[in-house]
Amino acid sequence: MTRDRWVRENPRSLEAGRVIDAPVGDIFRFLSDPRNHARLDTSGMVRGAASDAVITGVGDVFVMNICNEFKGEHQDENHVVTFEPGRAIGWAPAEPGAVPAGHTWTWHLEPLGADRTLVRHAYDWSRFTHLAMLQHLPVIDGRQLQESIDRLAAALGPARTQDQTDHTERTR
């Protein structure tokens, strides 16, 4: 890779990437705790996690409090579809009690040494099944996807204070 930051926009997917000066393990732990996800949200919809549960594997379901123009305040279930410790984590949102709608959020991590990691964040709606809502996708653009990685870098950066550390570190 010749650039430290990039965005790819395809007809039904987005991907952004950049190098973060943080160990891959710290990044994966941060992403595995849904209580951290609102800090990374650039859509303005994610309010916070509905529980203290930490993601431990494929098949886990975590619930997020959401607010958007279509449904107002509500909760979404997120079904973990990718879980490779230190490598990748991803989920597919769904209405409570329903199967996922066919869009996914996935974080891919590639260690570049002890304290540097290439982070790729992908939003894919190529299998989205709610045809009436398809016209409203994507819910964010490439710039916002890149900004979510920037927020991750800031949360894990060397200037963070103890109060800014991820929830997982405090519950271990």
TrEMBL record:
InterPro entries: START-like_dom_sf. This is Uncharacterized protein YndB with AHSA1/START domain.
